[in-house]
Each structure stands twice: as C-alpha cells, then as structure tokens.
Design brief:
alpha+beta, 14-stranded antiparallel β-barrel, 7 helices, 56% strand
Length: 409
C-alpha cells in the first residue's frame, strides 16, 4: 500500500519544477453485446419475469455466436516533456469480461432439449474469460521534425482470473428422448479460490506498447500496438482438462427399493478423461492494434477529420508457437470484429464537439459516438461510444461512458 501511495503522490512533488508536467485521470466503462438487450438484462439483474418471447428474441437477435464484453478501467498517469522527449508513468485498475457462446447453448439453457428431438445442438467454440489486474506502466517518447515514437512497458499485477474454453461440444436428443449423446472438450482455469479478497496477488505479467506518428504529404498517420501482454498465474491456480463422450439411455427399474446407481455409471459413460491440477498457467490481456489517417479541410466548422481501423488480439491459451497462425488465432479468439471509424471535431464557442461513426467491434453494429471537450485550467473530455443505444430504450445492446480530466503544469 505504501508503494501505491508513493506512485500517486509523486506527481504532486514535481508540479513546482516547471510547466512541462501533465497529470491525467481516466475512467472508462463499457458494456457491449451483439444480442443481449437492456430489457432481458434488467430482468436477470433485478428479478423480473423473463418471458418465452424475450428468450426467443435474444436467440434470434444476434449472430451465430453471442458475444458479451464488459470493461471497467480507472487510471492515473503523469508525463514530463523535455527537449522533444517525454517520460512518464501510469497506474490503472482494470476489470474485463469477454464471453462468446452459440445460439444452441441458449436454446439448451432456455428451452431444454424437449423441443429439439432428433437434432444435434452444437455449443462448440464457447468461451468465458474474466480478469482483474492492476497495470503499472513506464512511458518514454521521442520526436523530431518528421516522426514521433512512444514506448510503454507495463508490469501487470494479476488478482483474479476465470476462464472456460469449450472447443468442441454437442448434445443429440433421440426421438421421444430414448437416449442422449453429449460430447465435449473443455479446458478451465481459475486462480486460487481460497482467498478472494480484492487485492490478492495471484499472478505477474508484462505488456508492451508502441506508437508512432508521422506525416505523408498533407496527411498525419498514427500506428500503434497497445497492451500486448500476458499474465502468468501462480502454482496454486486450478487447471482442468476434460474430454468426454456421454450416452444416456435411461434406466429400467424392476425393484424401486433395490436401485443400483452403478448401473447408470457402467452403461452410460462411454469415455471420460478428466484431469484437474493445481499449476501455473498463462493468460493474455486484450491487445489493441490501431491505424488512423487524419487530414484537414477548408470548411469553417469542419477543420479536421480522422479515419481508422482497430483490431484486437487475445488468444484463449498459450498453446501455439509464435507464428502467423498464432497471430490469426489471437485475432479470431478475441471475439472482436475489425472496427472501422471516422470522426471529426466541431469547434464551438463554449466547447469542442467530437462526433464519431463506427462499425464493428464486439457488437459488429453501426455505432454513433459523441464527446464533449473543454479546454481551460483543467482539460475535460466526457463522451460515449454508443449514443444510439442511449436512445433505444429496452432494445439497447450497449452502453459506454468515458471521462478524462488533465492539467498541465
């Protein structure tokens, strides 16, 4: 705790040294889904009645895979500029949930298997990942007349991790329910559950950043890779690998007072390979790759514009060597579709308005963002990436709010 207090108080000791210091506070909340809407979520959270029509609407609303992503970040950063260079550090508390599951898994959960006789319901490629960690980052940058480059090196203090990865899974129900076939391959990982206090250190990791800005004719180009990193969780973590084929044919009971449970086990479990250990494992945090191009116009109220593309990289497990196939694996398993966007800045008398139009991401939907920026003694920015969902009422599938306040000294 003393170390954390020193990190937070150090910028205050440097403020009097000149006017090249900058301290910034960032807060960000994001919830995004390609299928789950506000009405259904409120019923689950606050105990409302979930009707059959609501269940059917959720199943039919999304793509083949249903994605839910949530992130809560709070962070403080400090930078010092000198001789076309910048040094600094930041600390952030991050909480991330990333899940993807098929429509068939929803059908099993909501409807059971009675209505799906003589059908195979597939729940392959289901994944649930939840992380909580703190990130301590050192920042260094250098600039000349034509290019600017910045690097970041982070230490990750891992608190808790939970993940379930079902690569293959299916359920077949025979006509009239005469037998069931269940097949699945699952890997599960969890940090030590003996101590679930808020700041329990269960792992350590590293991450790197690289950002560059340069000009090509009249255009400014930004290229960055942020938070490319991992956490190695300690040896008391729980790992589970399970590969099972289960066939249930029912049980014929001649004497209800002489029922032998072993008959079920002997006749119905065809194959079951399960291995549970307490061992160390590695997980990845979401890395962000970003490319943008900015230009200027002669319009009075539309002086600049920026267009870009964003990608995420987060593989399930550390099970492949570094290669092109591993890069593609991380892009696919991030549950994130390439995000394309364009935004501009409208200068007004009282503040700057920053509208943004984007498509893709975890929801893979068109999104309208807007931010308000005000410069003064304190520079303030507040905005959302999903203005359209604020106006959508119970059909909203995303909500986001971000806040930034900074001051130069």
């Amino acid at each position: 705790m003393k170390k954390i207090l020193i990190i937070f108080c150090t910028p205050l000791l440097l403020f009097a040294q000149g006017n090249k210091h900058k301290v910034t506070w960032n807060s960000n909340f994001l919830f995004e889904s390609n299928s789950l809407n506000k009405s259904f979520l409120n019923s689950m959270l606050y105990g409302g009645y979930i009707t059959d029509s609501m269940k059917t609407k959720w199943i039919n609303a999304g793509d083949e895979n249903n994605i839910i992503y949530s992130e809560i970040n709070n962070g403080l950063s400090y930078t010092y500029n000198f001789k076309k260079q910048v040094i600094g550090f930041s600390v952030a508390d991050r909480n991330i949930l990333n899940t993807s599951f098929t429509d068939d898994l929803l059908r099993i959960s909501f409807e059971g298997n009675f209505h799906h006789q003589n059908k195979t319901l597939v729940f392959s490629n289901t994944n649930i990942r939840a992380d909580r960690f703190q990130q301590y980052k050192i920042i260094y940058g250098i600039a000349n007349n034509s290019i600017t480059m910045n690097w970041g090196f982070s230490y990750l203090a891992g608190y808790h991790h939970l993940s379930y990865i079902i690569e293959k899974g299916s359920l077949y129900t025979a006509p009239f329910g005469t037998y069931l076939n269940i097949e699945y391959e699952m890997n599960a990982f969890a940090t030590d559950t003996a101590d679930l206090s808020v700041f329990t250190n269960n792992g350590n990791g590293l991450a790197i950043d690289f950002t560059t800005d340069f000009s090509i004719q009249e255009y400014d180009v930004n290229l960055s890779i942020i938070d490319l990193g991992f956490i190695v969780w300690n040896n008391s973590s729980i790992t589970l690998a399970n590969d099972s084929i289960f066939k249930f044919q029912g049980v014929e009971v001649e004497d209800i007072f002489n029922f032998n449970d072993s008959l079920v086990e002997a006749n119905n479990l065809v194959d079951n390979v399960s291995k549970t250990n307490t061992a160390s494992f590695k997980s990845y945090i979401p890395a962000t790759a970003h490319l943008s191009v900015s230009g200027k116009t002669k319009h009075k109220y539309l002086k600049t514009y920026t267009a870009g593309i964003v990608a995420k990289w987060q593989p399930y497990m550390d099970n492949e060597p570094l290669s092109l196939a591993r890069i593609n694996q991380g892009l696919k398993e991030s549950n994130f579709s390439p995000l394309y966007y364009i935004h501009t800045i409208f200068n007004t008398k009282y503040c700057d308005l920053v509208p943004k139009l984007s498509y893709g991401g975890y929801s893979n939907d068109p999104n309208i963002g807007v931010a308000l920026s005000k410069e003064g003694k304190y520079n303030l920015v507040v905005g959302t990436h999903h203005l359209e969902d604020i106006l959508s009422g119970d059909d909203a599938k995303a909500v986001s709010v971000y806040f930034n306040v900074s001051r130069h000294f």
